[in-house]
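Quick one:
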Amino acid sequence: MSVPDQPFEALFRLADQLLAVADLEGRLTRVNPAWEDLLDRPIAQIEGSLLADLVVSHDIARVEDVFAQLERSATPLKLVASFARPDGSRSSAAFKLTTTLAEEWVLVIGSVRSTVSESAPVELPGPLLDALTGDHLDLQFITDANLRLLWSSPSCEQHLGHAVGALRGRSFYALLPVDKRPIFDAIRERGERVPGGSTRSRLPLVGHNGQAFDFETWLTPLSGSGTHEMLLIVARPTMPRADESWLGSCLPLPDQQRATFTLDTAADQLVFSQSWQQIVEERSTALTLKRNEFLQRVHAADRRRVERQLRRVQEGTSDAVVVQFRIGTADKQRWVVIESARRSGSPHIGGALTAAWRNSSDPLTGLPNRVALAHMLAKRLRAEQARQATAPSARFALLLIDIDRFHVLNDSLGQHFGDRLLQHVAERIRNVLGDGDLIFRVGPDEFGVLMVDLRDEAQAERCATQIQRAVRPACVIGDTTVFVTASIGIAVNNRDFQDGGEMLRAASLARNRSKSRGPARTATYQSEMSMQAISLFQLGADLRLAVDQRQFSLHFQPIVSLDDRRLVEVEALIRWNHPARGMVYPGEFIAYAEEHELIQPISWWVLHAACRQLRNWSENHADFRSVGVCVNISRKLLESDELIEHVDRALHDSELDPERLTLEITESAIMENAESAAVVLKQLRDRGVRLAIDDFGTGFSSLSYLFRFPVSTLKIDRSFVRRLHDGESNREIVRTILLLARNMRMQAIVEGVENRSDLDVLRGLDCHLAQGFYFSRPGPPETIHMRYATEPGATS
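Output:
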């Protein structure tokens, strides 16, 4: 790989940013001197290293994943990572990575976020920094219990003039005017009396030049994150209440082009400013166009929409309109937005036409991107704040539309197919929007819609329903037909949002809520979602610490023989011993662990601990020498390359007979990727490990997989037991499953037996194994030992 030329070399030497050239595997072949400051080591020790080898352990997978995605990505990818320095301190940086046109090497561009000294009492991992600083314009601070600043967001430099990292180690009091410090103490004390909540107030913060600026602030204690308490402080600039007109209340972005125009209704012609020639990329084109000449420039699919919106202003049915459309340039189509309003006391209609360009435009769809959306939201909110005193508030809504499971289609069918699919989906969404609604591409598989003329919240929900219906039909690309769905989050501006970033976050929270309910769902933002997001943030910080410190224990629930009440097996169930909350049940944290790549370390711990405990029982009590143990395995573990290795090691270390270990897997986990699951399950069964289908009867309707996979046991879901007394047909379902298992020489275990009546019915159905509260609730090892150990055994 050749390094470009002398100007490139000069850029490397002089740039303050982090610049590097890497190969597609992530090996840094050239870095500039800024990397020496980041890592506190000479360039010679950096060049030739894999970027993944330089970051801290919990960021390795993220770095490797980004480089794996680069060859499939048409746009630059973002990465936030932390680095360990020789003196024990840590630094963090944010990067953008992109491949060259020939895709032979990768350009890495980054900026330092912060450096935390060895004496700092807390580590702030990359994912946590992502959660704080994703696309936020807010100022954000984390302090220790003594208000010493551990970290501050890059936006502090923009708003206060303090360089990134310059505040680390200083007291937060240094940012407060002296007379406001007692007020801050009172606010903080009030917040400490509201566990888990945020305290909102208004405070000035002092900039680098000594000038104080007003901010709205939120103080949120971050407890349970180790031996040291932390405080999250979010500060948002208060918005000016300037008397600005609706039109032109916010300048265009630096990389947007904007032409103003006047529509003379008497002459039926538009007169544009000089920028019109730049937008259409024709320097000699006329600046005065007849209305029909202008409309001929508009894409045929958008022409009627533009005509209708201009007519609304002309006829006086609307004071002002917004319309998004495509306009023909010298050799292509460009997306533009017109904002138009009738000038008071004049027959003329004034307006501005804005074209997205470079960083504010998506190269694949041509749509304006997330930067343009944030700018438009800020503009709308500022205009609404300016008119509140003189006119009723005009409502508008933001919809974030996420294409469900797009990454699966993109990975399996290729990036070219994925790009074509996104173009199809964008067109379908555009076709169902109202004349004044705007569409943006805001992420790899995400679109945004700004509804600027909203009558009520129900209208936004109806629009979401129309979008769901529009994307649902079959999409035919070449010889391939696929079906897609969308998850949609809605935020309406009747929640007193102060800026565009806050409204974007609200729509994101609603979108996340819709995705959590399953595909093809819609959710509208509610204020409690913000508190839930803070709770999730706290949960994530605490759970990562719990993994590092092994704050877990196992409880076991017996599986007994109905013939003689003999203990046959125990199911291992994890409990989290939270230092502040006490015992936390898996229903509160397993879903988060699966979503945030924590499920594997937690599950490996469960597997090894369960096998060790069974060995301990067996060595000390003869009654346990034939007892087995069940461990739950999730879909992600079934797909992990490490599963077989961990099973082998757990059995070896505990010296257990493999037949005494049962791995419980749900039907859906197996069928998610049946072919690869078949290979892994066969490897496990060949070792003697038993395999159980958990919650049998609630998943896939086809029973063919029972013949394809080496299943040993069916665990009949508790929902069938709850319906045992509702009629003969329900009992026949259980009888049929028991008979099926017996005919296929499998064990059958009925879950959820809670009373003697359930037991009597099951015995009548010829059931031999069961589990449930009637026999025993899950308990710690000593409880199981006391209940079932009757005969001491010699220690081997």
